[in-house]
Design a protein that fits this description.
The protein is mostly helical. It has a domain of 91 residues: Cytochrome c-like domain (Cytochrome Bc1 Complex, Chain D, domain 2, Orthogonal Bundle), CATH 1.10.760.10. It starts with a helix and ends with a helix. Helix 3 packs across helix 7. It contains seven helices and no strands. It is flat, with a radius of gyration of 25 Å. Bound molecules: heme C (HEC).
């Protein structure tokens, strides 16, 4: 009898994962002071279609200063995987991380700065995105530098 009670007690702890506690968007949430699950976005939040983003999506003019900035940022954020010359032999790949393609391969050369900017921003495959740690102007500078690497074939 005691064993049966124990078995019932243990079974009661089992639940299927379909039923889990969650808040509905327009439901109540005692956690917040106003009691609503749907909270007002914090000050400074920018809508996805706001003009600020459009400005960030503009490619800046190609200048020696932009390329110099790109070269410096590339060395900081990209060389460990892509290598100084963009061949994909960074130190991280020697330790088992998937090796990226050589930037000087025809397929990579065909990307163009827009696609490169996008890859830096959002990431690609195993490569993480950098939009949370590298500003949009710097991502453009890096993209311009990668294109320069592709054209000259050397750092
Ligand atoms: C942690 C390693 C790592 C770092 C750091 C890294 N990448 Fe990558 N990158 C990769 C790998 C791996 C791929 C191939 C991704 C795939 O196809 O799965 C890749 C792909 C790319 C591509 C090709 C995208 C495409 O559409 O084919 C570009 C361009 C690129 N990286 C640029 C950069 C730049 C610029 C930086 C620095 C801001 C950077 N990466 C930092 C590992 C890295």
């Amino acid at each position: 009898m005691r064993l049966l009670a124990l078995a019932l007690l243990l079974l009661a702890g089992c639940d299927n994962m379909v039923r889990q506690p969650r808040y509905d968007a327009y439901g109540e949430a005692p956690l917040f002071p106003d009691g609503k699950a749907l909270q007002v976005p914090p000050d400074g939040t920018i809508a996805r279609d706001a003009p600020q983003w459009a400005a960030a999506a503009q490619r800046p003019a190609l200048t020696p200063a932009l390329l110099a900035r790109g070269q410096e940022r590339y060395a900081i954020y990209c060389t460990m995987c892509h290598g100084l010359d963009g061949s994909g032999d960074g130190t991280v790949t020697a330790r088992g991380f998937p090796r990226p393609a050589d930037f000087r391969e025809p397929e990579q050369k065909a990307l163009g700065s827009g696609r490169i900017f996008q890859a830096i921003s959002d990431g690609r495959g195993t490569m993480y995105g950098f939009s949370d740690r590298v500003s949009a102007p710097d991502r453009w500078a890096i993209a311009a530098y990668v294109e320069a690497l592709q054209r000259t074939g050397r750092p």
